[in-house]
C-alpha cells in the first residue's frame, strides 16, 4: 500500500479517536459534578487546563526534533493512562490533574499539530490543504460516532466505568502512531539546501511576520467558540428543558456536518485564498450564534438545526489555518510553527470553557459568553483580511542580511 495513504488513514483514525473522545467529555459534566459535589466551575476549570496543556507547543517542537512517530506513541499512552486515572477521581484537584493536565498533554501529541506534521511529510504541497481538510473531517466523524457511544456508556454503566472502557479504546492510537514517519535524519542539511532555514531562523522571521501574528490572533477566537460550545452546550440545553438525548444528537450533528465543512473548505483552500475563506467562516459563526440566541425560539428542532449549522463551520478553520502557515513558511517546521498558532487557539479555549462555568455560577446564565462569542467572531473575520500569505525564503533573507 502507498506510504502516504497509510499515514493519512492512520492519522485520520487517530484524530477521530482523540478528538471524538475529547468532545464527549462535556456529556459527562453533570454526572461528574453531581458525583464529586462540586459546581460547574470545577469541571470547567479542569477542561480549561486541559485546553492550555493541549496547546503548549512543546509537542510540535519535539515532533520536529525527534519525529512525529515518537510524540504520537507517547501521546497515545498518556491519553489511556489519563482517562483511567480520571475514573478514580474523588476531588476537584484530582480532576484538574487527570482530565486537565495529563489528558491535555496527551491531546497535544495525538491531534492536529503532530498528525498534520506527519502527513505533510508524505503528501505534495499542492494537495496539502485538502488532505488536512480530510483529516480534520475525520476528527469530526469521531464526534459524530463516539459522542453517542460514550453517552450510552455513561448512562448504562456510570461515568467511572465508562471512562475505564474509553481508556482501552484510545489505547489503539499507540498502534496507529507506529505508521508515522520517524525522525528526519537529514533535516538540518535539507534546511540548508532548500533555503528553508534553521528552526531558530524560521522562528525569528515568524515573530515579525504580520500575517503569522494575525493568524495567531484569529485562531484564539476559534478556540473560544468550539470549547465553550463543546463543554457547555449540553448543560445549556438542559437548563432550557431540552431533553438530554437532543443534546447528544446535536453534538453528533456538529460532528457530521463538520465532516462536510472541513472537507469542502479544505478542498477550496487548494484553489482560493485561504485568508478570505477564514474571514467568511468566522463571520458566519457570529451570524449563526446570533440567530440561535436572539432570533430563533429554542426548541428541540432549533437546537438540532444549530448543531448542523455550527458544525459546518466548526473546525473548517483548521486546514485553512495550518495550510496558510505551511504556505508561508513551508512544511519543514510546520509542527513548531502551527503549534505556536494552536497555542493561541487553546488560550481561547481556556477562556471559553472556564468563563462559561464561571459566569454561569456567578449569574446563573450563559448569555454573556454567547455575546462574547458573537463579538469575537466579527473581530476574527476582520483580522484575517489583511494577512500577507506569500511564501517566504528564510535562508535567502538571512544570507542577504549577513555582511560579506
Give an overview of the whole structure:
The chain is built from 20 helices and no strands. With 404 residues, the protein is an all-alpha fold. It is globular. The N and C termini lie far apart (50 Å).
CATH superfamily: MFS general substrate transporter like domains
Average residue pLDDT = 87
Q: Please work out how many helical segments DSSP would assign.
A: 20
What radius of gyration results from the CA coordinates?
20 Å
CATH third-level topology: Growth Hormone, Chain: A
Distance between the termini: 50 Å
Helix content: over 70%
- CATH architecture annotation name: Up-down Bundle
Quick take:
By secondary structure, the protein is an all-alpha fold.
What structural keywords apply?
single chain, 404 residues, mainly alpha, 20 helices
Give a topology summary:
Elements: H1 3-23, H2 29-36, H3 40-55, H4 58-66, H5 68-86, H6 92-110, H7 112-120, H8 128-157, H9 159-170, H10 173-177, H11 187-194, H12 199-207, H13 210-239, H14 244-269, H15 274-295, H16 300-313, H17 317-329, H18 334-363, H19 367-383, H20 394-401
Helix pairs in contact: 1-7, 1-8, 2-3, 3-6, 3-18, 4-5, 4-18, 5-6, 5-7, 5-9, 7-8, 7-18, 8-9, 8-14, 8-17, 13-14, 13-17, 13-18, 13-19, 14-16, 14-17, 15-16, 15-17, 15-19
